[in-house]
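Researcher: Next entry in the queue.
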Amino acid sequence: MPAGLRLASRVLAAFTRVVITILTIITVLGVVADMITAHWSRVPFSLVFAIVFVFLMSSTYRSTRRFASRETAPPTLVEPRPIEASAGDPGWKPSLRVTLPFVPDRSDEPARNGLTVLRSVFLAFTGALVLIANLVATSTALPNGPVVPWIPILIAFAALTLVGARATDRPLPCTSAQALAAAYRARFFLRVAFAESVALMAFTITFAGGPVWTYYVGLAFTFVRFATNVAPTRAAVARDQADLEARGCNLSLIAALNPQTSTT
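Model: Structure for this entry, 264 residues:
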């Protein structure tokens, strides 16, 4: 794998784990704040919220470590042949087993399938943003400040993320299956970072002095970007595969993401 792609993949995986750690700390501090301020009626809800959130984030953390640990795996050999875009797609059910807390996963197959790992990360971050929305909704200490300058700041930041996402998007390479998989994973984490940063900025503004509904505006923007640009759905993978074939590439994206693919 090219050194640049390997470095970018590791940096993006590390960034994701940092975000997970920050969100977990914020959640735990919310429970502690309820106890300190004697909001005892909210403590049971906050504890349940924190437990679910930590389980959700821990599964995502493990997924990103699996993702990073496979960067030195040997290249996946894929024979040039006609490709069915959905061939080998594991679907979303394995990702749900990896992501949902309290659901035992008796097979390590999801850990070996790169597409399942990416979908697990996507589901975990989506769920975490929803849980944060609940935290905002139940918080009684929000400043509920003016629209100006906070909402214009959020709009400008969202516009910058759109520009940044477009500027950093590159066609997937076809030099080897390993380079293809590494570039796809790096692009996925980069798109997640740009899209989710808007919701995180809105969360910061909500507690810094913006209107109480600021987070929900940022969350809506992030979810639209998730749905249209980030989610590794079957249709999105098929579009990427069609783009590869249109450029004369005979590599299978799904096979490249799955290191257990056999060519025999």
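Model: Residues 3-257 form one domain.
Researcher: Noted, moving on.
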